[in-house]
From TrEMBL:
GO cellular component terms, semicolon-separated: cytoplasm
Alphabetical list of SUPFAM superfamilies matching this protein: P-loop containing nucleoside triphosphate hydrolases
Reaction(s) catalysed by this chain's protein: D-gluconate + ATP = 6-phospho-D-gluconate + ADP + H(+)
ATP-binding among keywords: yes
Protein name (Swiss-Prot/TrEMBL): Gluconokinase
Upper classification of the organism: Bacteria, Pseudomonadati, Pseudomonadota, Gammaproteobacteria, Oceanospirillales
Similarity comment text for this entry: Belongs to the gluconokinase GntK/GntV family.
Coiled coil: none
Organism: Larsenimonas rhizosphaerae
Keywords, ordered alphabetically: ATP-binding, Gluconate utilization, Kinase, Nucleotide-binding, Transferase
An annotated Gene Ontology molecular function: ATP binding
Amino acid sequence: MVQSLSALVSRRILVMGVSGSGKSMIGARLAKTLGCDFHDGDDFHPQANIDKMSRGEALNDDDRAGWLDRLSELLAEYRDRDDSVVIACSALKGRYRQHLREGGDDKLIALYLDGSYALIHARMSRRSDHFFSSNMLASQFQTLEPPIGGEAFNIDISLSPEGVMDQCLRVVDNSRQPGR
């Protein structure tokens, strides 16, 4: 694994992608490696959103609005303290990512965990400990607006977790958002 000195520089890191892409696992490992806080965006969903997803119903923009506000505020809290943080959040649409960037500022590094529907579906079908069911994955892919124009760094999740971490750490060590 790439050795990182990134903990010496304050930054906000968004680990994004559809459910089942590994956001929570990679985000937690990345935060531990960098010696900073980790927050799973799912922990910030209001109960109504969790209930809706548990029933197999996809969230809409209105459902996500307050949740995204809270995550943007969380990023702003870390920015204002000049502290580093890793947040896992689906950030499926460009406007969601822009809203989060407003909280995280120009030091927000977005890592897009990119994988095929077949790969992620296979992984999700093995999960039993999460409120999001694999049958909702199609709606996530329909909602997904893959990052373009330097919005995020693509991370290939077909690799082992160690390979995914190596990619993430290389990006973080280089520390500049593409196109900036």
